[in-house]
Amino acid sequence: MAMAPTVKVVLGSIAFAIFWVLAVFPSVPFLPVGRTAGSLLGAMLMVVFQVLTPDQAFAAIDLPILGLLFGTMVVSVYLERADMFEYLGKLLSWKSKGPKDLLCRISVISAISSALFTNDTSCVVLTEFILKITRQHNLPPHPFLLALASSANIGSSATPIGNPQNLVIAVQSKIAFGSFVFGILPAMLVGVVVNILVLMCMYWKLLSSAQKDEEDATAEVVADGDVISHRFSPATMSHLTSLNSLEWNSRLESVNMQSSPNMNGQVSHVETLRNRINSTENEIHSDTSGVYESARNSSASKEITNDASYQKRDETVSSRIESMDRLRDLSSMQFSSGDFATKWKRMLWKSCVYLVTIGMLIAFFLGLNMSWTALTAALALVVLDFKDAQPCLEKVSYSLLIFFCGMFITVDGFNKTGIPSALWDFMEPYARIDHAAGIVILALVILVLSNFASNVPTVLLLGGRVAASAAAISAADEKKAWLILAWVSTVAGNLSLLGSAANLIVCEQAHRAPHFGYTLSFWKHLKFGVPSTIIIIAIGVTLIR
C-alpha cells in the first residue's frame, strides 16, 4: 500500500498516538479519561482530521466481533449467577495438600476456565478466592496471583472465545472453532506445565517455608482444640420459654420471606398455625401462672381439694403442650416442602444454564457462525430466567464494547496512512514462516509490538499482512501464521504487568479486595514474566500446526 499524503500521515499518526497513550496509560496525568474515552477520542480525531470519512469509520466497526464478545459476556454473567465460578473457587482448596499443590490447582483451573469463559472473567472471579485461601493458610499471595494471571493468559490462547484478540483472529481468519482449538491446544498444555515449573523454581524455598509454617500452625490449633473442645456445658432447657417462642416466630418470618408468590395458600395457613400456637402458649402461661399463684395463697386445710385441682390443670397443660408440638411439626412439614420446591427450581435452572453453555460450545465445534451462536445462547438464558433481564445485562462491560468500536476506527485510520504497510514491507523478507529464522523474527516482532501497542491493536495491524504473506506460500502456512499470531500475542501479555488486561485485573482486584488487600508490584511480575514468557513462546511455536 502506498503512503498517504504527508498531511494525512502526520494527522493520522497524531490521532493514533493519542489513542495509544490513553490505551496503555489510562490514568496519564495530563488527560486521565481512561481507555474507553481514549479510543473514542482517537476515532473522532481520525474523522475530524479527514483521515477517514464518516462512512469509512462506521464500516470499520466489525459487528460480528462485537456480537460474539457481547454474547460470551452475557453467558458468563449467567454462569456466575449459576454458581459456576463459586464451584471453581471451592475446587482450589478442596483437599489441598499444601502450597505447591495449591499453586498447581490455581494454574490448571485458571487455564481451563479462561479457555471457556475468557481470561478477564476468570481473573475477576478467582482473585478474591485466592486471597482468602492464602490468608486462611498464612501463605504469601504473590506466587499464587502470578500463577492465576499467567495461566489465565496461556489457557485463553486455546480457544477463539478465550480473549478478545482471539475473537478478532477467529472472525477475520474464518478458521473453524475445532481446528483453532486443536491447532493451539498442545502448545497451551505444555505452556501451562512449563509455567508451573518456572513458578516452582523461582518460589520453591518460599513455598516450602510457608508449608512448614502452615503445618506448625495447624499443630498448634489442634493442640488448642484439645483443650477448648471440652468447654461445653449443656444449658437447661424449657418447653415454654419466651426465647423458644421468639425463635419459632423468627423462623416463620424467614420462611415467609423466602416463599415464592405461588405459595400464598401455604403462607396463609402458616399464619393460622402461628396464631394458634401463640394463643396456646398464652393459655399455658396463664394456666401455669394461676396454678402457682393459687399454690402460694392456699392454706394447709385445703391441700386435698387443691391437689385434685392441680392434677386436673396439669393434665390440661400437658395436653395443650402436645397439641402445640403437633402444630409445630405440621408447620415444619409445610416449610420443608416449600424449601424443597424452591431448591428444586433453582437446581433445574442452573442445569439449564450449564446445558445451554455446553450446547453453545458444541455448536462452535460444529462450525456454526460463532457470533450468532453466542447471541442465541445469551438470549436463550434470558428467556429461561423468566425475569427482567436488566440486572444481568447491566453487568455486561459495555465500556469494553465501546472501546472496541473506537479501536476499530482508529486502527483502520492508521492503516490508511500507509505506515504499517511500509514497516511490514521492510520486515516481511525476514519474517517468513517457511523457515525457523523467519518464525523467530515474526515471534519477536509480535512480542515487542504486543507489549508496546497492546495485543488487540497488534492483531488488527499485523493480522491481514502476516496471513497474506503466509498465503503466498500455502494455505496450511496461512492457518499456521494466524495461530502463531494468536499464541504469541496472547502469551506476550505475561511479559510485564502492563502486558495484558488480565494482569491489571488481578493487580487491581487484589489491591481493592476488602480485608485481603495486596499489592502486586511491577518488578515482581517482571522478574517472573520475562523468563516465563520467552521460554513458553519458544516452546509453543514449535508445537503449533
Give the helices and strands, then pairings.
Elements: H1 6-24, H2 34-48, H3 54-60, H4 63-81, H5 84-93, H6 99-117, H7 119-136, H8 142-156, H9 164-173, H10 177-228, H11 242-258, H12 264-297, H13 303-365, H14 370-385, H15 390-393, H16 398-416, H17 419-427, H18 436-453, H19 455-471, H20 475-491, H21 501-512, H22 522-543
Helix pairs in contact: 1-2, 1-16, 2-16, 3-16, 4-9, 4-13, 4-14, 5-6, 5-7, 6-7, 6-8, 6-10, 7-8, 7-21, 8-10, 8-21, 9-19, 9-20, 10-22, 11-12, 12-13, 13-14, 18-19, 18-20, 19-20, 20-22
Percentage of residues in DSSP E strands: under 5%
- By secondary-structure content and strand pairing, the structural class works out as mainly alpha
| Biggest sheet statistics | none
Q: Which value, in Å, is the CA radius of gyration?
A: 33 Å
Chain-averaged pLDDT = 80
State the separation between the terminal residues, measured CA to CA.
30 Å
Residues in helix, %: over 70%
Low-confidence stretches: 218-271, 283-306
Q: Count of helices? A: 22
Q: Based on DSSP secondary structure assignment, what is the total number of beta strands?
A: 0
The run of helices and strands is: HHHHHHHHHHHHHHHHHHHHHH
**Tertiary shape:** globular
